[in-house]
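User: For a benchmark we're assembling, each entry needs the component sequences followed by a predicted structure for the full assembly. Here are entry 17's components. Please fill in the structure.
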Amino acid sequence: MERKYLLGNEAIAHACVESGVNFVSGYPGTPSSEVIDVLRVQPDRSYYVEWSVNEKVALENALAAAWCGVRALCTMKHVGLNVAADPLMTSAYTGITGGLVILSADDPFAHSSQNEQDTRCYAHFARVPCLDPASIQEAHDMIPEAFGLSEEFGLPVIFRPTTRICHSKGDVDLGEAVASSRKGEFHKDPRQYVVIPAHTRVLHKKLNEKQSAIRKRLVERGFNYHTIRGKTAIIASGIGATYVQELLPEGISFMKIGAYPIDDEWLGDFVKKHEKVLVIEELAPEVEEAVRQVAGCVPVFGKKNGYAPYEGELSPPAVAAIMEKAGFLDKNPFPPADPVPNLPPRPPILCAGCLHRGTFYAIKKVFRDAIYPSDIGCYTLGLQLGVVDTTICMGASITVASGISHAGDPRDIVCTIGDSTFLHTGIQGLINAVYNGANITVVILDNRITAMTGHQPNPNTGVTACGVESPRVSLDALCRACGVSFVESVDPYDITGMTHILQEAKKRKGVKVIIAKQMCVISARRAGVKRGRYMVNPGICTGCGTCVRFGCPAIEFADEKARINDLCSGCAVCAQLCPVGAIAREGKK
Amino acid sequence: MSGSFDILMVGIGGQGTILASNILGEACLIEGRHVKGAETHGMAQRGGSVESHIRIDGLFGPLIPPGQADFLISFDLLEALRYSHYVKQGGKMVVNRQLVLPTSVFTQNLVAPTQDEIIAALKKHTLCLLDADKMAEEAGSPLSQNVVMLGAASHSIPLNPESLLEAVKRLVPKKMVEINTKAFEMGREFGRTC
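Assistant: Structure for entry 17:
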């Protein structure tokens, strides 16, 4: 046994190797991405790994692998499970033969997400087991169990870590890596794999019949346990259980829920031994609802009666406040500590030299009074530049644009979408917009990488997850094949060229596609691209502030003059914007 | 209660706080001690304000509650002030003298406190202020400023300096070991005077 200091996702990845995983697929999404990012770079891999184009594609691939009897892992963030919900719901009917673990990482407080949905509700909905770790060590230890449960019950198992598991670190005891020798083999069985009505009705019954045994087994395996210490009790799940253990006073009973579905008989026995019960959990009141169903006249404190919040994430002070309010703690041990007020915020910002900034600048210049639907990626930060009017989910830029177009708003509509997002779920929206005659301009922000989640390759990069060369998808040809006649590629560092193409698009009716092509500035730096820095000549600078309003973090303003700091990556866009020509490459006059 | 020694490390995305927190974690392993931590990943890293929590001897959750940190290490003056409410009464701070103004100051005309104002505000805690960028440059690479910071902080961290230095050597790239060893020792030397 080896002990290492690891990120939660690294520990989870290691546990997958310890479990002899054979097949791995997923789509990047914070906080889940590092699991595959770790697995794909291991030397001497004995398993297959892919970044899929979206979560539905990833899950269907993994499901097929598990049908062939091998162990499969499929990773995504919580909202990715919405995309994969279609195969999920019916995969519970068909079942699997090799273990299938679906990792769907939740993000309480929406640190890096568009909502605070709860993956446990999907497990409940699909009637598949769900494991919910409270610490990194437990996350690691649950993975082999998840594969085991999946094979025992012939069902996919959902593994649901949260941001504070995935992106926490700790000392973790690891097991031995296992090189599995399993080979996939598909055995034809239409009654299991062809879900026509006659088959699926039978499969549905079989799924329901498994439930009672699953509940019992989850208690037997020790995922759900309790200690009776008094007349009142706290029932907690996930990282919330860890915070409770940090605070738990003597004489209060404790129940830890780490797996669903919860055995209601076992739960009811515990609850009825107490005079009152407090439920602590993040996101949906999943445990609380189970407790309320068995509580009878035992008072239950939780979200449903206002003792705990529905929103946000828990923390030791938040849990202490809930315990104090519900009468489980005499005094909150964490007195409020307020931050210094009115400091200028430092939100994340597009990098110096990011291609998106030039693109957004040109869009705003040419389409002044337009509507700007956008999408999910680093470029959502274009909100700060006033060029992002909508963001809802992956791929919803083109569809929202066409919806607004058909709703009758007379303004121009210019939507932006990244290359990875376009390939994820953008293409269908483009086909639909052309087919139904929308009047929109689509700008594909093509940086050849999935940048925001940590630079994962996609079919537009030209390499696979494991670094093997692959044919690059042609975005131009793809858009033309969708029926778009105006498809133009342009370098977003060339503001004149970019502006010209946008003006051409503005003159035309129908769906126009502009592909703004430039490498992500971080990938370019890693690839050794050097452009030379730019500087402001203080003798020429009039302090007009045009370059400062461009919002590049390399441009500062002091003593009535602009100044370029060492974040400059040499994109030269600011030099093109300066009305007096005060910005030039370093070393040139 | 936790019984851990809680360190909050803050800075700006891209300054190397994650490597620095890994070094602290590795040093805990070298000494056979438990450690828990939490950090900022994803989009928030893009030049935004970032925080790493490290709880030496931590057995429970990874988050340090505001007002409870034993020690703050900050790579930037403004970030030190932003997170200063995390430090408990009598807690210490090691702070890099650098002040990077957020772009919001220029684009939205916001007022940022001056260097002197920030230092005056931080002085209600035991403050060790150093020019880590300059010292890193002297050590041989501006990238070693995170290790300079750890060297200066090493006097207040309940870990042997030998373990910290060993962790530095294990985690930085091979060709950078010499520079980072020097950076650690320069930081440690400066820390004696704080």
